[in-house]
Amino acid sequence: MDMFFHEGDLVGVLTTQPLDRVLDYRAPEGGCWIGAFVEVPLGPRKVLGVVWGPGKGDYDLTKIRAVSRVLDAAPMREEMRTFLTRAADYTLTPMSAMLRLGTRAPGLGDPQSMRTVYRLGIGVPDRLTDARARVIEVMRDYGGLAFTLAELAELAGTGPSVIKGLVKQGVITEEAALRDTPYPRLNPDHGGHDLTEDQQDGAKVLRHAVREGTYGTTLLKGVTGSGKTEVYLEAVAECLRIGRQALVLLPEIALTGQFLTRVEARFGARPAEWHSGITMAERRRAWRMVGQGEAQLVVGARSALFLPFRNLGLVVVDEEHDTSYKQEDGVLYNARDMAVLRASLNGAHVVLASATPSLETWANVEAGKYAQIELTSRFGPAVMPQMRAIDMRAEDLPGGRWVSPTLQGAVAARLEKGEQALLFLNRRGYAPVTLCRACGHQIGCDQCDARMVEHRFLKRLMCHQCGATKPIPKTCPSCGAEDRLAPVGPGVERLAEEAQALFPAARVAVLSSDLYGSARALKAHIESIANGGADIIIGTQLVAKGHNFPLLTLVGVIDADLGLQGADLRAAERTFQLMRQVSGRAGRVETPGEALLQSFQPEHPVIRAILSGDQEGFWRAEAAERKAAGVPPYGRMAGIVLSSPNVQEVFDFGAEMARKDAPLRRIGAQVYGPAPAPIARVRGRHRVRLLVKAEKGVPLQAALSQWVAQFRIPATLRLSIDIDPQSFL
Ligand code: ADP
Ligand code: ZN
Fold first, then answer.
1. ∠484-467-690 over CA atoms, to 5°?
2. What burial class does residue 590 get, using C-beta atoms within 10 Å of its C-beta: 0-12 exposed, 13-18 middle, 19+ buried?
3. Is any ligand 1 atom within 6 A of the Cβ of residue 225?
4. pLDDT tens digits, residue range 698-716?
5. Which residue of 195, 229, 259 sits with most ligand 1 atoms within 8 Å of its CB, as the best mutation to test the pocket?
6. Which residue from 113, 204, 539, 569 has the least number of CB within 10 angstroms?
7. Quick one: pLDDT at residue 458?
8. Cβ distance 316 to 351 under 8 Å?
9. Ligand nearest to the CA of 353
């Protein structure tokens, strides 16, 4: 039973303000439930909070103020409170920041606003014009549905005055309705393909798991195009049938367009959407309706995990290996891991879908913690592309050019047949370096320890760390020589120029996240390319993320060695995943595809594993290396980044932290560093890293908290702790 507090009872309220403690208040007139969203006075202000439990009474009782009001929203459920608490403990994040994640909808405190809607009434029009007839017809077509004035006018192809005229005669009625309306019901049996045997087996296992209503995680593994989406949509259908809510997480907003269309075809209506591309009004509606159980399915980005689901029965993490599931600013959490935590508290099932799962997930399957379903072949006649390396040491390629004669020939052959080719290069902009040919100076960012990247499209140099831009100078800022600055190395814009020169008749399109003003524009562009709006696609890793390009039959990877150079412990894994994913874009329909990887080291074991597609072999070798080194997933890590405008301060502080490491030594953990971060300066702040390594199973978070608590952090210094870091910059 949930706890109820009567007027005047002491209640503890967690607020979104960075205070890091639950404050005591008195329950307001009418009382309140535990979990209630409330507004409380804090100093001169009123702030948002949640009734977290009984008050502690450890504060001057005469000074305790009353809760100002209880908001008109479903109280936060116990499992959500537990989720936020556990997630905060895991990521070492203050509770106030967790609560902010859980209340990311504007106007939560506002009374529900109203809008005017129109329905068919019983009156008869004095005169039936064409326009009037159309309006009436639209309303009849849609049964008893209510429309806004704008919707109705658009559907009927008339102006608002026609509708207003019908209102006067009682043909149409005007009424006030709540603005935040429930989402249309989804019908689990609306559509759906006939599944192949493999797919049916997988769907059956997942349906059963969902019906059980207990926590479990299943890896759904299968090459791109094998029908993973078809299969997990059957799990969603089952979840809808038993009346529970489902959440599908996608790694990239640009993917939601294609996906929503698919959901609509399967369930007959569109689900709720949750990501940075939706409007504030949509955001508020989604948040409220999820809480009231009036949104059966949410399709969203990682932060959708923090929506107030009433009865969550299934979470799907599509492309689970994708690095964008790790939030790299603010609260540093990994959505894949948080999905598992949330589901375990809700008795929900988790499906992790991927063609190239992360080593973490692979290890959990090996250890028997996760179940696995495998789809072994592509749907229909499509097969995985033929993969081959192009040995760049044997290619005759002039400086300043990146498409080898072999690759050029392959592209030409595809274009002749009216098929599409993709040239993949994971580098935005025109050229990564701008070099002075007179003195050798490379133009850098004034604020960061990073070179400026030329963006010819924007006609500026840009810092990819802080986003600062400046015009491309005519003279060298170092030696003053005129017209000696030259771009060095390729970016996608430069590659597009080369492709256009090699194939003057071809339509070349660049797909890079920075070239579009909005997610919407990017989505539209992707769709037009998929429909044949380009012959050659030049893309960054954006194209690797599950888009469907039915006409694409050739993928040329410009620099397959690029990802192998980093010191990152996941460099091999990332390269393997990215290359397999990108190659998987080729040949999805009837025409067999081909993937060509330009490499200067085709004998490198990772390149060989990519070409042979021997995932198991690759993972076993990679797992053995990580085990030997005691690194994730076989050991634990935490990254500490210190930053300050003062370089001395940040190094001194880092050194002191490394010295006073007793709390870490007690659990057998080691500290490495301080060392300058690979990006040693960002936005004028100097950055230093420490790395903590521990064995699995030790209480790492508790030790880190004790360790950090020893130090008084100066106001100029920022300290962030990243548990299970993915990025080592
Ligand atoms: P994945 O998620 O593994 O990449 P998808 O589920 O997107 O694969 O399937 C790839 C394509 O094949 C999609 O266009 C999908 O609609 C189609 N497809 C998959 N399975 C079937 C099926 N059983 N019947 C009809 N079309 C299917
Ligand atoms: Zn910068």
1. 105
2. exposed
3. yes
4. 999 999 999 999 999 999 9
5. 229
6. 113
7. 79
8. yes
9. 1
Q: Is 258 in the pocket of ligand 1 (CB under 6 A)?
A: no
Ligand 2: centre distance to CA 449 (Å) = 7
- Helix, strand or coil for residue 294? coil
Rounded distance between C-alpha atoms, residue 728 and residue 29, angstroms: 52
pTM, whole model, 2 decimals? 0.82
Measure 276 CA to ligand 1 centroid, in angstroms: 27
Token readout for 719 is 């300290």
Say which amino acid occupies 127: R
Above pLDDT 70, what percent of the chain? 95
DSSP state of 618: H
517 Cβ contact partners less than 8 Å away, ≥ 6 residues apart = none
3-class SS string, 197-258? HHHHHHHHHHHHHHHHCCCEEEEEEECCCCCHHHHHHHHHHHHHHCCCEEEEECCCHHHHHH
User: Does 196 contact ligand 1 (Cβ within 6 A)?
Assistant: yes
Ligand 1 centre to CA of 207 (Å) is: 18
Is 325 within 8 Å of 360 (Cβ atoms)?
A: no
The domains of the chain, with CATH numbers, are 4-102 (3.40.1440.60), 114-178 (1.10.10.10), 197-375 (3.40.50.300), 386-430+489-623 (3.40.50.300), 434-487 (no CATH), 636-723 (3.30.70.600)
In whole angstroms, what is the distance from residue 324 CA to residue 667 CA? Answer: 31
Residue 327 pLDDT > 80, yes or no?
Answer: yes
Tally helices (H) and strands (E) across the chain.
Answer: 20, 31
User: What does the pLDDT average to over 604-628?
Assistant: 86
Alpha helical stretches, state H, 49-126 = 78-91, 95-102
DSSP 431-487: BSEEEETTT--B-B-SSSSSBPEEETTTTEEE-TTT--EEEPPSB-TTT--BS-EEE
Q: So what's the pLDDT on residue 515? A: 66
